[in-house]
């Protein structure tokens, strides 16, 4: 299979859907500059995208002072004048070289780079070159601004700016990062059709992306073409390709690639075979691994102890510890077995929860003079803590200290967690502080584990101490820990503590050293977004009936203009700049409609809500807060949702029943029914009367699979009936289905009686109950209920025929189901009878000639000749199938 056929087939497959890339080895995904510079020493001058040299291409004029000056202006913050005004005042002339170098120096601040890029193209006589576009594209790709990448490509085409090989490589990388492998393949083919022969960097990038996407077969086609063109892979990419081929089961290709590594790339055998062995073991292909060992032994290839260690690890992971011990015996005959190998065996025993054998081997290796590794001690301690063997675990830790075993953060954190579980927090603090004394860096993971264990025993004072310590230690990515603590405290109803932690978090975010550290982190993109939890925004429809539709007092043109601004970019800085240039007079009515229309762009919508609230002459209304709370809830950003709610209280904005309903609905939808109930009680305690919608969404959540609380649902439904709030059909169906499912039939019967009291007819009440019984397979109870109806039985039959037939067919009661079909014709339900005949045929059940004739005549009698003809066709098709089968 050639690459062209592979590309076309996969492109068709993935053009309408994204291909999910599961990055098993994140280190394998390199930046575009690394993709384009696989041999840095050899190709630095030709392929580097972002090498920030100080001298221009002329070799004569040193532009570095100008570049430095412009960069200072672009990256300056908190200035009275805007960047554009300061650039105009400086009066410098810009050429392509200066612009490119400035953009490279703004790599860490992509939003500022884009502003400079957009400003400079307005300068008279200046046009962006391919190199400038490449730099801006690269910055956008690294910032994962995929929409911006598309816009830049369109702009290049519009301005007739040609693409070069680097442009294509960046675009391939862009789609790879966006998990759109099909599009990456299409771009590769477009590059070829445009007259550009893909270079080694482009091929390597495609092989890497395809391997990560588990498309080993297509990756192999690209690799073969590389070999044909005398291109090679580096060692890391060879390993990735081998791993991908082994996982796919293409063992023949694994051996082919290994041979190429030795013969073409001249990689020594003692480096190639361990890679093969490791790939087999990681994928759990032990038979192939043993065959490789046997083959190497027959060819008299010397195997070093590292290869046997890899095999032992693979066998233990495959739960073949007996075989692993045999390998260890072979190793003993040839060379000494170190404590690392024994540690692998102990880990194998712990994996299968065979603690006694793990400790027997642990004891024997100590008696043989070996000192177990830190990881072995740690794993044993963790298992002992899980078994509540605190004393034994503590003795192991003391033994580590006595024998001088090198401690690491994992071992110390494990001991801290164990001590906290016993409520020995003072000792836990002593152990935790030894990390700093020993010069061990305390990781965010260590703080996170410490805090979570303290939460389990509800030591709020100690949690604050840990957070204070974390804040003082300048941990740069501790914001997620604060969020977790806040969420935990909110679930427990610790309102006062929540506010304290939020204050600490705000101080933490403003801590200057932490900000600087964040700025220096290439992987950080905090400067692109504010602290709203935008990555959780989900494209869900906003239930607009809970947000009052206000009288229209705004211009549709203004609405479209603002919605366009909010949706054109993900960069809030650019959006804010565009908003500040607008001369629109904002009103609460306009803001509600903007939020409603932009609810799918939740991140931008919530930023806009915050921004517009600070504008002179404007103040938020209850309706605008309601909509913002709803958008936050859909994003599952309950922290922000709650803060908006409290903000309404602080500003004395009227909190209506709709506000409470939205909050209750958002918690209930995600299964947080306990919090939803707490808000419902708080709502009533604040003298706010629940509406029919409040009761509906609370009961629906209590009846849901996630967070189900049936007793509370019964209590609240009864309360709803008492206060004369009329439930709708959706609510009644869900509520009855839940009761029937859990066997609370008496409560379900009471519900039907309650419905009649508030205006539901007898046939309708019974039909909802009988349908619920049929759905959960309680046919006996459903049929028994029919006899209780009385004179309105004929009306009820019209409602529930379909449900009864479905239930009977599921039970295998064919004759009774067919009798019901006959009955449906008699009461003018022939069309539903036709649907049931179709379902019977699909299920392999053959209706009789009488059934077909009955439905056929019924449809003709009802004037539905086209459907009657369908019945005839189905009968003829069934007869022809029977004839063919005989």
TrEMBL record:
PPR repeats lie at residues 164-198, 269-303, 304-334, 338-372, 373-407, 408-442, 443-477, 656-690, 691-727. Residues 289-398 form the Pentatricopeptide repeat-containing protein-mitochondrial domain. Pfam families: PPR (PF01535), PPR_2 (PF13041), TPR_24 (PF23276). The keyword Repeat applies. SUPFAM superfamilies: TPR-like. Belongs to the PPR family. P subfamily. PANTHER family: OS03G0856100 PROTEIN (PTHR47447), PENTACOTRIPEPTIDE-REPEAT REGION OF PRORP DOMAIN-CONTAINING PROTEIN (PTHR47447:SF28). This is Pentatricopeptide repeat-containing protein-mitochondrial domain-containing protein. It comes from Nyssa sinensis.
